[in-house]
Design goal:
157 residues, alpha+beta, Nuclear Transport Factor 2, Chain: A, 4 helices, 6 strands, globular
């Protein structure tokens, strides 16, 4: 006797909501709006930047990013491409994006950063970012690694 597998859940609405959340965060970035950017995160979120800075909580993330938007990130945008999205139960998801920070008027280019997002649906039924960890890509190191040990090449493009 074989056990019946439960029918897969339709995650169309959740997928759209997660995509909208990531787009809101990118729009807040492009607008230079730290408060709106911070509002995309949970109150106890963590944001680990690719240079190793750890911000904690939506308020701190918003405050710190406002200072960045008013300073050396002024006039930039956050380009994001959703590479992978997996749901773990009805309230939790993990997303992987490729992207980069560019001057607002710059043409799209090759993405230089990857980010892993842990997303949660909170009591108000809104998806928010509970954690994000960003990594700077090192394409030349990847190329060397893949050439020396081809079996290390990932299946994702």
């Amino acid at each position: 006797m074989t056990a019946r597998q439960p029918a897969p859940l339709d995650r169309t609405e959740d997928t759209a909501a997660v995509r909208a959340l990531l787009q809101r965060s990118a729009a807040a970035w492009a607008d230079g709006d730290g408060a709106a950017y911070g509002a995309c995160f949970t109150e106890d979120a963590t944001d680990l930047t690719y240079i190793g800075t750890l911000y904690r909580g939506s308020a701190e993330i918003g405050r710190a990013h406002q200072a960045l938007f008013d300073g050396f990130l002024k006039g930039t945008r956050l380009d994001l491409d959703l590479v992978d999205l997996r749901f773990y139960g009805p309230e939790t998801a993990v997303a992987v994006t490729r992207g980069d920070v560019r001057k607002s008027r710059a043409a799209p280019g090759r993405p230089g950063k990857l980010a892993t997002y842990t997303l949660v649906r909170e009591a108000d039924r809104q998806w928010r970012i509970a954690a994000v960890q960003k990594t700077q890509r090192k394409p030349w190191m990847e190329a060397i690694s893949f050439r020396v040990q081809p079996a290390t090449r990932p299946t994702l493009p």
